[in-house]
Amino acid sequence: MLKFIVDTQLPPALARVLSKQGYDVMHTTDFPQGHLLTDKAIRVIATAEARIIITKDNDFYDNFMLKGSPPQVLFLQVGNLKNKDLFTILENNFGQITALFESGANLIQLDRDRLVAY
After folding, report:
1. Dihedral angle at the C-alpha atoms of 86, 91, 95, 100, nearest 10 degrees?
2. Using CA atoms, how far apart are residues 58 and 62, in angstroms rounded to an integer?
3. Cα separation, 102 vs 94, whole angstroms
4. I need a labelling partner for 103 at 20 to 30 A (CA). Which of 15, 70, 74, 110 fits?
5. DSSP secondary structure string for all residues of the chain
6. What is the CATH class of 3-117?
């Protein structure tokens, strides 16, 4: 079963929405340092717990391109959206996203109208 950690700049409600759909999801605010967790700390947690990082932060994309995986990354390139719209985009694509990760993808970039898997 895939496990996820939602990065700081995304809403904690995203973790709750995915949890209600049966996924094992944590948000950085679930940790004592919460929003102050560094990218490195998030990568360490994700690697240690085999979690996929869900993020909008280019630093995770850049780190993946330089160093590869682990951790795996779902990189959201959807711009600034209302939470409802963000959840809809993810809901419409999450089946394909999980299938891609389960079939060996290590980085998935989700734009408003396409998925790119690496």
Report:
1. 0
2. 6
3. 12
4. 15
5. --EEEE-TTS-HHHHHHHHHTT-EEEEGGGSTTGGG--HHHHHHHHHHTTEEEEE--HHHHHHHHHH--SSPEEEEE--S--HHHHHHHHHHHHHHHHHHHHTT-SEEEEESS-EEE-
6. alpha beta
DSSP per-residue codes, 72-86: PEEEEE--S--HHHH
Give the domain ranges of the chain: 3-117
Say if CB 73 and CB 55 are below 8 A apart.
Answer: yes
Tell me the pLDDT tens digit for each residue of 68-117: 889 999 999 999 999 999 999 999 999 999 999 999 999 999 999 899 99
